[in-house]
Amino acid sequence: MERGMMSVRPVASLPPELWKWDATDLAAHIKRRTISSLEVMVAFHTRIDEVNPRLNAIVQADRDAEISAALRADAELTSSVAPVGPLHGVPITIKLNADVEGQATTNGVPAYKVRVAEHDSLVVANLRRAGAIIAGRTNVPPFSHRWFTENPIHGRTLNPWSDDITSGGSSGGAAVAVASGMGAVAHGTDIAGSIRYPAYVNGVLGLRPTPGRVPALNGTVPARFAGLQLFSAQGPLARTSRDLELTLRAMAVDGQADPIWINTPLDYPDDNAACPVGLIDEIEGVALPSKIRSALDIAARALEAAGYKVDPVKVPSMRDALELWLSIVITENRLGMMADVDAMDDHVSSTSIHAMASCAPNPDLRTYVTALAKRDALRRKWQALFVRHPLLLMPTSCRLPMKWDDDLGGEEVIRKLLDDQSPLISVAALSLGGLNVPVGQDDGLPLGVQIVGAPFREILMLRAAAAIEQSAPTRRVYD
């Protein structure tokens, strides 16, 4: 099989409900015209009507435009001789913080309803160029700045496994849409775990690529602080690793208008090799629950069965990386976002964001500049680790899925939460890629692990995820 090509299962072996199909299969069969894009769109609309009124993941949609786009996609297959894109006719959701032409990029903030995008963001433009059809916008917390998804405009997004636990954030709506069958793939963003954590608590895969891999330019946000430029990444959420790969390839093709985009190859000669994997099961200052240790053990055994050599390694300090992230991002928040937080007059968001800010160092120039310098030194240590172990296996989070509002208890509670989320935040602080992979459930709730790779080795990460999928298949929420 050629690199990047996906196997396609015959129609007869697939479940009858089109909304359960992988994006890879949908795209292949639409292209073959064994199913139509219109049929797929209607199937997803039916599923959305069934579950979204309760879950509230998709909060903005234009059904007429979606049907028209599906009809055009089908017509193009009969009228055009040019090859169609890899996601031709496949519905995909877009997070509320990415620009979609003619729609408001509210990011969950009432005052931002006036921020109507004149053009698609670059990642949305790439997805459209690949043939994807936007089938709705997914919910976020205000400013995409919380591990819980609810806001004053659209309300709360529920986790399909349990109403009692968080749906994650900030890509909570995206993860819930994928987990519950309202979309095969979803767009998300991640500056502190905002793709990986929702994927973790909803039992799906979520890929944070290396920052710069996928263009992030948004016309409604003309200037971004250094932390957003260095730490934030755009990426996909899906139910299979092959769908992540298909969507990543579509997202990353062109970003020349974005000065942060890096035109570097996706594919490397050793992507399919079973490389050494460093196992990180000791996190500074944190006692890992036995269920999370069990999840790591399941994943390690799956990788070893596929030929990977998994060895325990000592990781450079995640707590140092967390402190650097706080020093940089919270300083920037105090200079920019905090005034809008206070003006919003939303007690929940304000309490959570101010509690996190209280854990950060004093916001002065020396602290900020020193943090940037220390970050460079810490990245060198991590890079030395990747020379020996191109992949790392670690917890996605050091605690089981949180209950709603676990972040509203003040500074002490937030400090413990930040320590527990240090595997998420440290990866972002060091501008690395990370990938949540489900490894089953415990007591009816999802378990997952995180694969972290050397910079720009997303395909190597996805191959390891596929090995875990094969040995440790996970149950779907709708099975």
Q: Shape, please?
A: globular
Mind telling me the C-alpha Rg? 21 Å
Strand order of the largest sheet: 6-8-7-12-13-11-9-10
- Biggest sheet overview: 8 strands, mixed
How many runs of DSSP E, i.e. beta strands?
13
Q: Any low-confidence stretches, pLDDT <50, length ≥5?
A: 1-10
Please give the count of helices. Answer: 16
Residue fraction in strands:
5-15%
Please estimate the helix content: 40-55%
What structural class should be given to the helix and strand makeup? alpha+beta
Mean pLDDT: 94
CATH superfamily: Amidase signature (AS) domain
The level-1 CATH class: Alpha Beta
The CATH architecture is Alpha-Beta Complex
User: How many domain modules?
Assistant: 1
Spell out the helices and strands N to C: HHEHEHEEEHEHEHEHEHEHHHHEHHEEH
CATH topology group: Amidase signature (AS) enzymes
Distance between the termini: 31 Å
What's the topology here?
Layout lengths: L22 H10 L4 H19 L2 E3 L2 H17 L11 E5 L26 H8 L3 E6 L11 E2 L3 E2 L15 H8 L5 E6 L5 H7 L2 E4 L17 H6 L1 E6 L2 H11 L24 E4 L10 H16 L3 E4 L5 H18 L1 H8 L2 H12 L6 H24 L2 E5 L15 H10 L1 H8 L3 E10 L2 E9 L4 H14 L8
Parallel strand pairs: 2-3, 9-10, 9-11
Antiparallel strand pairs: 1-3, 4-5, 6-8, 7-8, 7-12, 11-13, 12-13
3D architecture notes:
The strands form 3 sheets. The protein has an 8-stranded mixed sheet, sandwiched between helices. Strands 1-3-2 form a 3-stranded mixed sheet, with helices on both faces. A hairpin with a 3-residue loop joins strand 4 (150-151) and strand 5 (155-156). The radius of gyration is 21 Å and the shape is globular. Helix 8 packs antiparallel against helix 16 (458-471) and helix 9 crosses helix 16. Mean pLDDT is 94; it is low at 1-10. It has one domain (11-471): Amidase signature (AS) domain (Amidase signature (AS) enzymes, Alpha-Beta Complex), CATH 3.90.1300.10. The chain contains 16 helices and 13 strands. It has 479 residues and is of the alpha+beta class. The protein has helices spanning 23-32, 37-55, 63-79, 122-129, 172-179, 196-202, 226-231, 241-251, 290-305, 318-335, 337-344, 347-358, 365-388, 411-420, 422-429, 458-471, and strands at residues 58-60, 91-95, 133-138, 150-151, 155-156, 185-190, 205-208, 233-238, 276-279, 309-312, 391-395, 433-442, 445-453. Residues 39-460 form the Amidase domain. Pfam families: Amidase (PF01425). This is Amidase.
